[in-house]
Amino acid sequence: MKLLAIDTSGPVCGVAVATDEGIRYSCAVVNKRTHSVNLLPMVDAALAGTGLTLAELDAIACVVGPGSFTGVRLGVSTVKGLAHGAGKPCIPVNALEALAVGAGAFDGVICPIQDARAGQVYGAAFRAGNPRPERLMADEPVKLEDYAAQIAALGSRFLFLGDGMPVHRERLRELLGERAVFAPPALAYLNPGAAAQLAAASWELLDYLTLQPLYLRAPSAERNRKLMEAQHG
Predict the structure, then answer these.
(1) What are the pLDDT digits (tens) for 98-150?
(2) Cα gap 135→129, rounded to integer Å
(3) CATH code of the domain in which 58 resides
(4) pLDDT of amino acid 218
(5) Count of domains observed in the chain
(6) Taking a C-beta distance cutoff of 8 angstroms, is the pair 63, 11 a contact?
């Protein structure tokens, strides 16, 4: 098994390569350049660093969301193009589940959250598991207070990580007190190696035409269009 995994769903631009020997390459950057500038050079570096070519891969994995609409579109479009050109299948990876994989063996409820703005998060809940975490809550776009109320019934300790964690840290501490635990910087954001590990565990092969972004709500442009249509009959 040889696969390339790509993530542009959040603030991190990440690329990893996994084989039967494990994670052979993992690189993640957060810099002032956009993901569109970073991504393809990072793919080239990952393949060069492992001595592999696209033709030698068995599949190309992509974090399909939830996350930034622009970032998710970029990642999915790039993987579609690479897979089409190389004649390879794709593997979709859920961003929140990949975040939970990266949290390791936390003894409690793993709570990945992505900032959805306006006081909302894209959230889910998991327990640590191998090779995949156990899902306790479906992905959901929800107000932070409602999310905290939902997870409160699932356990007594909650590990928060993801790009929504620093945004909502103080409010989560107010809502959950000492039960709220916050991931250290090394675990706070999506690790491309975790995305590759999850892709290898699921091995959900799709044709590149079938690979689609995972949006929990419609992009703002589509919502605005529907609003304008409703207003004008």
Answers:
(1) 999 999 899 999 999 999 988 999 999 999 998 899 999 999 999 999 999 99
(2) 9
(3) 3.30.420.40
(4) 63
(5) 2
(6) no
Task: Indicate if 91 and 201 belong to the same structural domain.
Answer: yes
In sequence order, the 6+-apart residues with CB closer than 8 A to the CB of 150 are 125, 137, 142
**Residue 30 is part of which domain span?**
2-95+190-225
Mean pLDDT value of segment 172-185: 96
Same-domain status, 160 and 105: yes
Q: Is the pLDDT of residue 225 over 70?
A: no
Please enumerate in sequence order all residues whose Cβ is within 8 A of that of 72, keeping only pairs 6 or more positions apart, or say none: 8, 9, 63, 64, 65, 66, 213, 214, 215
Lookup: tokens for 213: 């972004």
Q: What value, to the nearest 5°, has the Cα angle with vertex 92 and ends 113 and 194?
A: 55
Instruction: Verify that 85 and 51 share a domain, yes or no.
Output: yes
How is residue 81 written in tokens?
């193009």
